[in-house]
Automatic annotation (TrEMBL):
Lineage top rank: taxon: Bacteria
Segments passing through the bilayer: 435-459
Stated name of the protein: Type VII secretion-associated serine protease mycosin
Keywords assigned: Cell membrane, Hydrolase, Membrane, Protease, Serine protease, Signal, Transmembrane, Transmembrane helix
Alphabetized InterPro entries for the sequence: Peptidase_S8/S53_dom (IPR000209), Peptidase_S8/S53_dom_sf (IPR036852), Peptidase_S8_Asp-AS (IPR023827), Peptidase_S8_His-AS (IPR022398), Peptidase_S8_Ser-AS (IPR023828), Peptidase_S8_subtilisin-like (IPR050131), Peptidase_S8_subtilisin-rel (IPR015500), T7SS_pept_S8A_mycosin (IPR023834)
Organism in which the protein naturally occurs: Actinokineospora guangxiensis
Membrane topology, from the record: Single-pass membrane protein
A GO term for molecular function: peptidase activity
Family named by the database record: Belongs to the peptidase S8 family.
Gene3D superfamilies attached to this UniProt entry: Peptidase S8/S53 domain
Cleavable signal peptide: 1-27
Gene, per the UniProt record: mycP
PANTHER family: CEREVISIN-RELATED, PEPTIDASE S8
């Protein structure tokens, strides 16, 4: 690979995250409703979704992204890379050889990924096998995970796990659209962008069966939480993540979602931990998935990050630098359709920091299972000042990669975790006072005073009763 001296900025002409239409509720689902914080239990016998083909015939409707006409020379390191101490981090691990699946808009070939990039599947255009990225999203996500600039170059940017392998699965695209079959005879079908929960579920299973040890899903779908019944797409995804985590030992990472996108609320999704206003998928399946909120460079939650009881941890999600999918350089901004520029930001780009950290842990601690990897990330994060060290906005707090690679976790050594107990506070019994010494002292003191008074009385009486002695004056001669 050669050093890149000039790097074009990125032009994005379409939405980057997957928009997934609502799907009908399953008739066979039980009618019992649960709190929105927890999905219903997976019904016994639910099949694991399978399939590797697009669900519709998709065609390119909007041209693929292209580099901006003005070249921008990007040499600085992103703030997130500095905050997470990549220079020290890579002394412990680089993620070497760990396969990380990126289920996204595809990943374009890039010199900073080299031969560590492999196409695994494509649910948009099968012939591209995940190695075309018309939207630009997936390539940027992959760069945050595993980009490795040429040795000796003066480029500051690098991925958090520059030794990891990237397995690309294109599952969604806003630039490709297809037509659903018409619902009425003679009617016209609805035009939809590529990507839905069913193909996402299939992609998770494909990634797990393709040898991925970590999966990054920077995709979200939001729906109102007024009805807690699970729909068909959610059920398929629930079965897929359970299969991947429990049977294939895969660490599953997802973004927490951005306000105002993909039907997510503009507000913060309510403040009652057990009753969010909207359900966000895949984060809803927190029993098997670790979802990631976004933080800004000031250490505050990014204003766009969606809160919810399922949020696991947080990571940098603003002022992002990553790979340019339209060339061989880097990008640090989006050019909108109206020509205005905006920095790259979103929970989509916070999630790959955590996916890369999971790859580092899997290299350094190969004997840990997926659940232990997730627990290590949570336990070593910078916990917020909240009950249990967790809140709905940042989860267990900003990740601490150095801590995650160096901390001793008692549970991993077979030490039972400490349990908090409600201990009733009791006062010791009252001890009755022994007044004997005081009584003796008072009697003694009183006796002494009485004896003194008697003595004084006697002396005084004797003096009064003693005859006076008179002295006569002598006569003179």
């Amino acid at each position: 690979m050669r050093a890149v001296r000039r790097v074009p900025a990125l032009l994005l002409a379409a939405a980057l995250a997957m928009a997934v239409p609502a799907q009908p509720a399953l008739a066979q689902q039980p009618e019992t409703k649960t709190a929105g914080a927890q999905p219903p239990a997976l019904p016994p016998g639910t099949p694991v979704p399978s399939g590797a083909d697009p669900d519709l015939a998709y065609a390119l409707k909007t041209a693929c992204i292209r580099g901006h006409k003005d070249n921008i020379d990007i040499k600085n390191r992103p703030w997130g890379q500095i905050r997470l101490q990549f220079d020290e981090l890579h002394k412990f691990a680089t993620g070497k050889g760990v396969p990380v699946a990126v289920i996204d808009t595809g990943v374009s070939r890039h010199p900073f990924l080299g031969d560590r990039l492999r196409g695994v599947g494509d649910y948009v255009k099968k012939e591209h096998n995940g190695l075309e990225d018309c939207d630009g999203h997936g390539t940027q996500v992959a760069g945050i995970i595993a980009a490795a600039p040429p040795a000796g170059s003066d480029i500051g940017f690098t991925g958090i796990a520059p030794g990891a392998q990237i397995l690309s699965i294109r599952q969604s695209s806003a630039n490709y659209t297809g037509e659903r079959p018409p619902t009425t005879e003679g009617g016209r079908g609805e035009e939809v962008a590529a990507g839905n929960l069913t193909t996402l579920a299939q992609a998770v299973v494909l990634a797990a069966n393709s040898g991925a040890k970590v999966v990054n899903m920077s995709v979200n779908r939001c729906r109102p939480a007024s009805n807690y019944e699970i729909d068909s797409g959610e059920l398929a995804l629930q079965a897929a993540v359970k299969y991947a985590a429990e049977q294939k030992d895969v660490v599953l990472i997802t973004s927490a979602g951005n306000t105002g996108e993909n039907n997510c609320p503009d507000s913060k999704n309510g403040f009652d931990p057990n009753n969010p206003t909207h359900i966000v998928t895949p984060p809803w399946f927190a029993g098997h998935v670790l979802s990631v909120a976004a933080m800004d460079r000031n250490g505050d939650p990014a204003p766009f990050t969606v809160q919810g009881p399922w949020v696991g941890v947080s990571a940098p999600g603003t002022d992002i630098i990553s790979l340019d999918p339209s060339g061989d350089g880097l990008a640090n901004l989006h050019i909108k359709s109206d020509g205005s520029k905006d920095t790259i930001k979103g929970t989509s780009f916070a999630a790959p920091y955590v996916a890369g950290l999971a790859a580092l842990i899997r290299e350094r601690f190969p004997n840990l299972n997926a659940r232990q990897v997730i627990d290590r990330i949570k336990l070593t994060a910078a916990h917020p000042a909240a009950p249990g060290g967790h809140d709905n906005l940042v989860g267990f707090g900003m990740i601490n990669p150095i801590g995650a690679l160096t901390a001793m976790i008692p549970a991993e050594q077979g030490v039972e975790p400490e349990e908090s107990r409600s201990v009733r506070m009791t006062m010791p019994p009252a001890v009755p006072k022994d007044l004997t010494p005081m009584t003796v002292a008072l009697i003694g003191a009183g006796g002494g005073v009485l004896l003194l008074l008697i003595t004084l009385f006697v002396v005084h009486t004797i003096r009064r009763n003693r005859p006076e002695t008179r002295t006569e004056p002598r006569g003179q001669a």
